[in-house]
UniProtKB/TrEMBL annotation:
Organism from which the protein derives: Komarekiella delphini-convector SJRDD-AB1
Gene behind this protein: rpsF
InterPro entries per UniProt: Ribosomal_bS6, Ribosomal_bS6_CS, Ribosomal_bS6_sf, Ribosomal_S6_plastid/chlpt, Transl_elong_EF1B/ribsomal_bS6
Keywords: Ribonucleoprotein, Ribosomal protein, RNA-binding, rRNA-binding
Annotated Pfam families: Ribosomal_S6
Protein name: Small ribosomal subunit protein bS6
Any single GO CC term annotated in Swiss-Prot or TrEMBL for this entry: ribonucleoprotein complex
Any GO molecular function: small ribosomal subunit rRNA binding
Similarity-based family: Belongs to the bacterial ribosomal protein bS6 family.
Any GO BP: translation
């Protein structure tokens, strides 16, 4: 069964534009290899962190929205945990409202 997920991660603020693109591509490819589909990427840019993380006050926020089986999340988060460029990450399962079918034969008067 596939589910809709959102993964938000924060990259170190000292990374160059090219390094940021490489990191995005790396995780996007990892998702594809694991069977994720409809990957939407949003680079939210450099922002001030609410509190210091690993001696950084700023971070580059990246958001992925994708449809994937549940087995995708663990390898993605493991790669981010072992990465030098990612300072924080979080994946949440999206609640998707399915359209309810209209009642058949309902009187409309």
């Amino acid at each position: 069964m596939t589910t809709v997920y959102e993964t938000m991660y924060i990259l170190r603020p000292d990374l160059g534009e090219e390094q940021v693109e490489q990191a995005i591509t790396k995780y996007q490819n990892l998702l594809r290899e694991q069977g994720a589909e409809d990957i939407q990427i949003q680079n939210r840019g450099k922002r001030r962190l609410a509190y210091e993380i690993k001696k950084h006050r700023d971070g580059i926020y990246i958001q992925f929205n994708y449809i994937a089986p549940a087995t995708v999340v663990a390898p993605l988060e493991r790669a981010m945990r072992l990465s030098e460029e990612v300072i924080r990450y979080m994946t949440i399962k999206q609640e998707v409202q399915e359209a309810k079918p209209a009642k058949v034969g309902a009187a409309t008067e």
